[in-house]
Amino acid sequence: MNLQNIITEYPDFPKKGILFRDISPILKNPSAMTHCVDEFAKRYHINDVDIFAGIESRGFPIACAMALRYNKGMIMIRKQGKLPGVTVKRSYTIEYGKATMEIQKNAINKDQKVVICDDLLATGGTAKAAAELIERIGGAVTGFAFVVELTELNGIKKISKYRTESLVRY
């Protein structure tokens, strides 16, 4: 299946000069979602992961689908102020501004193997922050699963110490 034919492009969103690649059409297409999960399942063995982490918000359905496939749990890495309880925060820069992400301090057990899922790898700031949050609460990041990677932005460099799997590269 050619996922590039399903992804929709929106120029100048969320601001001028950004070409937004939207995976929403993949999410609403059961065959495309199954294809994504099948492809990631070929790349990550069941022993590579104890739990999946989804980055807000487009990473949630990817992580959830993977968790169901592997019969594992799923946790959320969210924007600041969206999670109850004690949280750990990490501020960072993204390609069009600044952001703060957080995770619940008790989201995982010590040394749990975590695969972090998101829709897109751009400059790598969000991915790096997510990995740092997982590690700060005692987890072991065993990899990333991205539907899309924007190779010209070199985000892979910020997370080069981790295994990274991307299904579509632009």
TrEMBL record:
A GO cellular component annotation in the UniProt record: cytoplasm
Alphabetized UniProt keyword annotations: Cytoplasm, Glycosyltransferase, Purine salvage, Transferase
Subcellular location: Cytoplasm
First-listed, main subcellular location of the protein, grouped into a coarse class: cytoplasm
GO biological-process terms attached to the record: adenine salvage; AMP salvage; purine ribonucleoside salvage
Pathway(s) annotated for this protein in UniProt: Purine metabolism; AMP biosynthesis via salvage pathway; AMP from adenine: step 1/1
Listed Gene3D superfamilies: 3.40.50.2020
Pfam families given in the database record: Pribosyltran
Reaction catalysis annotation: AMP + diphosphate = 5-phospho-alpha-D-ribose 1-diphosphate + adenine
GO molecular function: adenine binding; adenine phosphoribosyltransferase activity; AMP binding
InterPro entries documented for this protein: Ade_phspho_trans, PRTase-like, PRTase_dom, UPRTase/APRTase
Residue ranges constituting the Phosphoribosyltransferase domain according to the UniProt record: 37-158
Record-linked PANTHER family: ADENINE PHOSPHORIBOSYLTRANSFERASE
Subunit structure: Homodimer.
Described purpose of this protein according to its UniProt entry: Catalyzes a salvage reaction resulting in the formation of AMP, that is energically less costly than de novo synthesis.
Protein name, UniProt field: Adenine phosphoribosyltransferase
Gene of this entry: apt
